[in-house]
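User: Some background: our group keeps a shared notebook of sequences we're curious about, and every so often someone picks one and asks for a predicted structure to add to the entry. Today it's my turn. The entry only has the sequence so far, pasted here. Could you supply the structure so I can complete it?
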Amino acid sequence: MSVQPTIILIPGLMNDAWVWRDVVGPLSRLASVHIARTDGCDSLAAMARRIADAVAGPMIVVGHSMGGRVALELFDQAGPRIMGMVLMDTGVGGPKPTEAEGRMQLVALARDEGMAAVAREWMPPMLSAAARADAALVAGITAMLERADAAIFAGQQQALIERPDRTALLATISCPLLALTGSEDAWAPPAQHQAIADAAPDGRLEIVEGAGHMLPVEMPDALARILTDFIRPLL
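Assistant: Of course. Here's the predicted structure to add to the notebook entry:
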């Protein structure tokens, strides 16, 4: 009898298990679910090693934003164990020339004024217009970001500044790969995900209309359906 894979949910920058709260239930009816921790690490590779060490056996990996980049590192480390991959609201390239400066400015803001100040600066471009008008959602995201203190934030930002370019890795990912994003995601737009899907041997693209970068909390019901449809045939 084959071993059933574990569904791995990897959150993005400053995010925690809260972003997955509405998809864990539906996915847990398919297989065991493991929500990865990315705090306390200052490299994407270290975040991936923590997952590989924490979970035994095969995996179906779902990475959101920074979590998508961690998923790529996990494939580099443990590719034969991965039966399927979802790269959501993310990218595969290395850092842009001016990127480090902008990220470190946010780290300085976190240290000087706290994570609530970072939330006010960082959040608006990450959300669709409709999500920005949802006071309860904005409050929930703000509370989550405040749980990531300045030290956690600094480590994650350093990991992103030093991230490798994983464009070439996509051609080696032979398992089914879903590139998923929101139509309103200006940070990781649909065209970027089309390129990811095209580069993977078994890749495909899906776009959620009306969602911004924070797709897991902006449209969780749609996400749960998409993930269920992707994962069920892999079991």
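Suggested note for the entry: The mean pLDDT is 96. The CA atoms of residues 139 and 185 lie 20 Å apart.
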